[in-house]
Amino acid sequence: MLIALIAHDKQDALQVRKDNRDAHLAYIEATGVVNQAGPLLDDAGEMAGSLVILDVTDMAAAQDWADNDPYAKAGLFESVSLTAWKRVIGG
């Protein structure tokens, strides 16, 4: 099941993102459920959120992944949504 995780950073939290980026990337590698991912950008081209496509068994697994992401644990996000997603084009 593909789940789109869309997270928006708290305002002025770029340093929190940078400080936790290595742990976040290691988490992605270790868990093995990320199909695609990348940062959302603000008008200045700075990282301001995340788009992560998870390939998991169910929504509960997606929520567990989201809750344990080092970015979430660091309090980076203002909001996080999880939505079932169907790939139609690409990859």
Radius of gyration, Cα only, in angstroms? Answer: 13 Å
How many strands in all?
Answer: 4
N-to-C series of helices and strands: EHEEHHE
- The pLDDT mean sits at 96
Q: What's the end-to-end separation, in Å?
A: 15 Å
Low-confidence segments, given as residue ranges, are none
Q: What is the count of helical runs?
A: 3
What would you call the shape? Answer: globular
> Sheet bearing the most strands, described?
4 strands, antiparallel
The strands making up the biggest β-sheet line up spatially as: 2-3-1-4
Description:
It contains three helices and four strands; from the N terminus they run βαββααβ. It has 91 residues and is α+β, with helices and mostly antiparallel strands. Strands 2-3-1-4 form a four-stranded antiparallel β-sheet, covered by helices on one side. A hairpin with a 5-residue loop joins β2 and β3 (47-55). The mean pLDDT is 96.
Task: Quickly list its features.
4-stranded antiparallel sheet, 3 helices, 35% helix, alpha+beta, 91 residues
Short structural summary:
The chain is an alpha+beta fold. The chain is built from 3 helices and 4 strands, in the order βαββααβ. A 4-stranded antiparallel β-sheet has the order 2-3-1-4, with helices on one face.
SSE order and pairing:
Elements: E1 2-9, H1 14-31, E2 34-41, E3 47-55, H2 59-68, H3 70-73, E4 77-84
